[in-house]
């Protein structure tokens, strides 16, 4: 932890400010020019020159263990299946096992570069899901726990135990999830819609609610990630939370089936979610790729009802999901890529949606992860500085992150080249900004 001063930065609301960080915490935020710059060493100062500053990003939904495996699989001569031929879910790690990519050492090496990508984009907390199936023993969790130790104080990693094998066919899978929680997994996950029957899915939901209750951990299952309008386990989840007065943070990840629900049921579910303070995470790019694969035209594009959920007062966060793996070969760990995609995909392209989109990716994601990371005195002295004058231009251009500071210590810096174009023999710089 250390001291740092950022001068002449611009908040999302347009206020020009200086930020003073002392002992790793925000000491004060004052109007531009009022910061006590002389109280800081020259190595602890940065002049923002009118650029946008925000709190750090928090990534609420990704898979570190499978990340960056796409090219390795192809190199080994792997025949990549079409996304609709991937199977029911719990086989997704088999090919990685065969390729030797699931040993803890391999996981740490591969996912370190992934965390570096996140950090370069200003993400300082990452929630990752990991398969806890008994077939892996505890080695996937061990790899991630070692990663947590390597990145301690730089990128915080929250691990969600995701039981990809059935929780109701064998008690061994419940035990395996408990072992993972005992070993240090932070959050209880689940995937009830992959169970064989509706009844099994309901039992799956009850089991994970029991575990969240007994371990007093947050609950964040994959749920209703399907194009099947009869996949309705989020309602069961909300009902169980309500009946037990469950006092832990509950998040419904994906919920793509809501896209397909009849309006009457979607309306009922919104009420249940709002009443029980259950958050939702949408994962725009991966679900655009995975959903609708069995459709003829018109083809559903697989996202939940983001606009309606927001209107109902439900906290909706934006995740990046799979990254450079067989499910989603693209992605670069930049949250703004997902935000821009959602803006188009979810019809959130009005000028008045710009603040909403930023609120989703900053405040809602932080809230879902239980963080208190806003730019205000007493909070963690961390921020992201964009190479853009305001939030609209930063989003529109996916502006480079110029500087990321964590608890008063720079953890990302970017040295930019300037782009010039020549017209009429004159070279002039291009910054891609639009005056607003
Ligand atoms: Zn997911």
Helix run count: 13
Shape: globular
- Major sheet description: 7 strands, mixed
Order of helices and strands: EEEEEHHHEHEHEHEHEHEHHEHHEHEEEE
How does this structure look, described?
With 436 residues, the protein is an alpha/beta fold. The protein has two domains: 4-56 and 374-420, Urease, subunit C, domain 1 (Roll); 57-368, TIM Barrel, CATH 3.20.20.140. It contains 13 helices and 17 strands. A seven-stranded mixed beta sheet has the order 3-2-1-4-13-14-15, with no helix packed on it. It has a four-stranded parallel beta sheet with strand order 5-6-7-8. A four-stranded parallel beta sheet has the order 9-10-11-12. A hairpin with a 2-residue loop joins strand 16 (419-423) and strand 17 (426-430). Helix 7 runs parallel beside helix 8 (263-275). The longest helix is centred in the middle third of the chain and has 18 residues, at 198-215. The two termini are 37 Å apart. Residues 61, 222, 253-254, 283, 321 line the site of zinc ion.
Task: Please render the helix and strand layout as text.
Layout: E1 4-10, E2 16-22, E3 25-31, E4 45-54, E5 57-62, H1 70-75, H2 94-98, H3 104-120, E6 123-131, H4 139-150, E7 156-162, H5 171-183, E8 187-188, H6 198-215, E9 222-223, H7 233-244, E10 251-254, H8 263-275, E11 279-282, H9 284-290, H10 306-311, E12 316-318, H11 335-345, H12 354-368, E13 383-386, H13 391-396, E14 401-406, E15 409-413, E16 419-423, E17 426-430
Parallel strand pairs: 1-4, 5-6, 6-7, 7-8, 9-10, 10-11, 11-12
Antiparallel strand pairs: 1-2, 2-3, 4-13, 13-14, 14-15, 16-17
The protein binds zinc ion (ZN).
Zinc ion (ZN) binds next to strand 10.
């Amino acid at each position: 932890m250390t001291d740092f001063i950022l001068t002449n930065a611009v908040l999302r609301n347009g206020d020009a400010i200086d930020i003073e960080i002392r002992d790793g915490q925000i000491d004060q935020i004052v109007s531009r020019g009022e910061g006590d710059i002389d109280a800081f060493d020259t190595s602890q100062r940065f002049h923002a020159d009118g650029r946008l500053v925000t709190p750090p990003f928090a990534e609420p939904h990704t898979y570190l263990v499978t990340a960056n495996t796409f090219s390795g699989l192809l190199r080994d001569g792997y025949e990549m299946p079409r996304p609709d031929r991937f199977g029911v879910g719990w086989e997704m790690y088999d090919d990685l096992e065969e390729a030797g990519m699931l040993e803890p050492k391999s996981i740490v090496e591969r996912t370190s570069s992934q965390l570096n990508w996140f950090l370069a984009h200003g993400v300082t907390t990452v929630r990752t899901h990991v398969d806890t199936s008994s077939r892996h023993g505890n080695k996937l969790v061990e790899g991630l726990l070692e990663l947590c130790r390597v990145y301690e104080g730089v990128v915080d990693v929250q691990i969600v135990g995701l039981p990809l094998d059935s929780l109701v066919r064998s008690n061994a899978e419940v035990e395996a999830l408990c072992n993972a929680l005992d070993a240090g997994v932070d959050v209880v996950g689940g995937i009830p819609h992959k169970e064989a029957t509706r009844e099994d899915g309901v039992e799956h939901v009850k089991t994970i609610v029991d575990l969240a209750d007994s371990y007093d951990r947050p609950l964040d299952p994959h749920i209703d990630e399907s194009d099947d309008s009869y996949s309705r386990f989020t309602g069961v989840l909300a009902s169980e939370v309500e009946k037990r007065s469950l006092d832990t943070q509950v998040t419904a990840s994906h919920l793509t089936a809501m896209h397909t629900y009849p309006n009457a049921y979607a309306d009922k579910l919104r009420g249940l979610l709002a009443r029980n303070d259950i958050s939702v995470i949408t994962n725009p790019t991966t679900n655009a790729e995975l959903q609708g694969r069995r459709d003829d035209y018109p083809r559903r594009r697989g996202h939940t009802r983001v606009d309606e959920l927001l209107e109902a007062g439900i906290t909706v966060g934006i995740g990046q999901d799979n990254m450079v793996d067989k499910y989603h070969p693209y992605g670069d760990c930049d949250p703004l890529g997902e935000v821009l995609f959602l803006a188009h995909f979810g019809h959130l392209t009005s000028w008045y949606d710009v603040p909403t989109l930023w609120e989703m990716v900053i405040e809602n994601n932080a809230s879902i992860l239980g963080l208190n990371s806003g730019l205000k005195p007493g909070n963690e002295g961390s921020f992201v500085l964009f190479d853009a004058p305001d939030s609209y231009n930063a989003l529109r251009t996916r502006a480079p992150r110029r500087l990321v500071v964590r608890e008063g210590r720079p953890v990302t810096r970017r040295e930019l080249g300037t782009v010039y174009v020549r017209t009429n023999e004159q070279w002039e710089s291009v910054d891609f900004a639009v005056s607003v």
